[in-house]
Amino acid sequence: HEDDEKSMATFQTELQNYYMLPFALRHGLRIDNSMGAFCLINLLAQNKHVNSIDIPFLSNHDAFHRFVLGLDGIMSCPWWTRQWVIQEIVLPGNATVHYGKFVAPWEMFAHAARNYEHHRTNCCESHYTYLHWNDIRLLEKFSRMVMEIDDLRQEWQKILKDNASLVL
């Protein structure tokens, strides 16, 4: 969405300004790690390569680590392990994820997870040598959890489509 692009650009500017300050002056300022996590998910969903050109904050290890921790905070919510997640994500034609002030289509999460796996195992695997092992572990956790749910969702949507064609 256009507003999301503007929010991401504003966030990127704020992030750059934050890291330009001397460490002592950053003390009272905060970075919204959840916003960073949603920016990361959005960029991965756009099939961006895992490098500092396509994902600019990847060049700043502290920022990237914070955003991965923000992503882990999202993925550590009890919602992901509830049985109702099947009903909420798998069954509807369109599903939406709500987290605090953030709202995103389920497809953004699914595309991000699948693209991460593709890039991780193919074209961008050398970039993972620059990432901290715990950040990689948390990104893989995100990908695995989302793909498990999305696999069920895709199976269900296929069943619905197949049954609809039988009725016609």
Please tell me about this protein's structure:
With 168 residues, the chain is mainly α. It has helices at residues 2-20, 33-45, 61-75, 84-90, 106-121, 133-167, and strands at residues 96-99, 102-105. It has a two-stranded antiparallel sheet. Helix 3 (61-75) crosses helix 6. The radius of gyration is 18 Å and the shape is globular. The model has no long low-confidence stretch (mean pLDDT 85).
Break the fold down into its secondary structure elements and pairings.
Elements lengths: L1 H19 L12 H13 L15 H15 L8 H7 L5 E4 L2 E4 H16 L11 H35 L1
Antiparallel strand pairs: 1-2
Helix content: 55-70%
Shape assignment: globular
The first-to-last residue Cα distance is 36 Å
Helical stretch tally: 6
- Which structural class matches the secondary elements? mainly alpha
> Helix and strand string, N-terminal first?
HHHHEEHH
For this entry, give a set of tags.
168 residues, mainly alpha, two-stranded antiparallel ribbon, 6 helices, 5% strand, globular
Summary of the model, kept short:
The chain is mainly α. 62% of the residues lie in helices and 5% in strands.
